[in-house]
Design brief:
5-stranded mixed β-sheet, Aspartate Aminotransferase, domain 2, 7-stranded mixed β-sheet, 12 strands, alpha/beta
Length: 463
């Protein structure tokens, strides 16, 4: 017998038919290439015609709430018996289009079952994700193990907001390629392992599969921040990671119109937390509980802006990566430059391990290449001879590069991390993260590389 009243069951039956159709759509979409998924996501011609008056582009639902047909549908929705979005702080159909696209891109080339939950920023996503996993079991507080070379905002959230203010210990890894260091930091109260690759701004990289396997040996999830790589170069779920987090604000939202964050998690995740619903479908659990309660919701208009930027992701990442390689090779030859950090350089100590993971998606199906090709992204950094003041003088002479703390834009950007993105974590924190005061970070954009190099050339010229 049904556990629902006849009125509620009617809506449950309708929802089940819709969900079955959605599964068929996903199955068909898995046959498409990466670029096609980036352009269309799961927004089909049938949906455009039947549900959205023929709108060719995903519509923006500028409404804070959802109208229900009657009390039976409201009950079915609020009890979780049917899919619902209810209220924009919980969800919104436009956000759903973005989540579908991100899920398909992150699982591309596999049959991995995964879900996505989007946020108002990458930091909101990281906070919601980590707080949800940091459950205290028994008397001992929870802890987690994290690579120390991470984005400055993430470092602050972990080191200050969690450890100093709340007593949740973060156990830092100084060399993420040292598996014994990871192993030595894990105990019965560890809840997850966390890494960022490539790291911002030092471009640290590690052999992802090894700490993932170690995490699973201990019944723990591995969380990978893949913001810099994007799914166009690396998809951590395919290498065993349980959860991927992105600051979608960056490369995926290249036009720079606003912030967004995302969590993409496989179903199920590994975890030592006795919460079956959370482990079975992590992003659904986030949306229904922590995300709903903490309120880091993404605006529907920004979701559409991001969807539009995503449509050209692979092409942009390919082009910007090639330009970055030219820039890196130029900088290596300059007498004023002390050191260049770019994973594409064969001289980089982590070039080999990065080359194992960073591949331009679908390059073997691209007529220009016809085979798998490595690409290393748009981010690089370099140190200037003469110390911090010399670096500031070079920085101040940029004419084409915008002096901005952001990255991943169509316009080339530059910053000095020690006085911007990593300023608040202090000298000791910057030492831990390998951020010297003479380091300049570059985010190479869509300008012609000849013009980018000319700007660097004139900035480096002694005056």
């Amino acid at each position: 017998m049904s556990q629902h009243s006849p009125g509620v069951q009617k809506y449950v039956d309708q929802a089940n038919k819709m969900l079955a159709e959605r599964e068929r759509t996903i199955k068909d979409a898995r046959k498409l290439r990466f670029d096609t998924l980036a352009v269309h996501g799961l927004y089909t011609v049938a949906e455009a015609i039947e549900k959205n008056q023929g709108a060719a582009i995903e519509p923006v639902f500028m409404s804070t709430g959802q109208v229900y047909r009657d009390s039976d549908e409201m009950e079915a929705a609020q009890t979780g018996a049917i899919p619902t979005w209810a209220y924009v702080r919980i969800h919104n159909p436009t956000l759903g289009y973005l989540e579908d696209t991100l899920t398909m891109l992150e699982t591309y080339g596999s049959d991995i079952d995964a879900g996505c939950c989007v946020y108002s920023s990458g930091m909101a996503a990281i906070e919601n994700l980590t707080d949800t996993l940091l459950v205290k079991l028994g008397n001992a507080p929870a802890n987690f193990v994290a690579q120390s070379q991470i984005y400055g905002g993430t470092f602050q959230q972990f080191n200050v907001r969690k450890m100093q203010e709340r007593g949740i210990e973060v156990r830092w890894i100084s060399d993420p390629n040292d598996l014994n260091e990871w192993r030595s930091k894990i105990d019965r109260n560890t809840r997850f392992l966390y890494g960022e690759l490539p790291s911002n701004p030092g471009l640290v990289f590690f052999d992802l599969a090894k700490p993932v396997d170690l995490a699973h040996e201990h019944g723990l999830p591995f969380v990978a921040d893949s913001t810099i790589a994007t799914p166009a170069l690396m998809r951590p779920l395919l290498h065993g990671a349980d959860i991927v987090v992105h600051s979608v604000t960056k490369t995926m939202s290249a036009s720079g119109t606003g912030c967004a964050g995302a969590i993409i998690a496989r179903r199920p995740i590994v975890s030592n937390i006795p919460n079956d619903a959370m482990k079975a479908d992590f992003t659904k659990y986030l949306r229904e509980y922590p995300h709903r309660d903490q309120g880091g919701c993404l605006h529907p208009m920004q979701a559409l802006f991001t969807i539009n930027d995503l449509r050209t992701l692979r092409t942009r990442v390919d082009s910007w990566s090639q330009a970055s390689m030219q820039v890196a090779k130029f900088l290596v030859k300059q007498p004023q430059v002390l050191e260049v950090n770019y994973l594409g350089l064969e001289s980089h100590p982590l070039h080999t391990v990065a080359s194992k993971y960073l591949w331009l998606v679908d390059s073997e199906h691209d007529a220009r290449y016809g085979k798998p090709v490595n690409r290393y992204g748009h981010l690089l950094s370099f140190r200037v001879k003469g110390g911090p003041q010399a670096a500031r003088k070079v920085f101040d002479r940029f004419q084409l590069f915008r002096r901005v703390t952001d990255l991943g834009r169509v316009k080339s950007l530059a910053t000095i991390p020690s006085i911007s993105t990593h300023l608040q974590q202090g000298e000791e924190g910057r030492r831990l993260a390998h951020i010297p005061a003479d380091l300049i970070r570059l985010s190479v954009g869509a300008e012609h590389p000849d013009d980018i190099i000319k700007d660097l050339e004139q900035a480096l010229r002694e005056k």
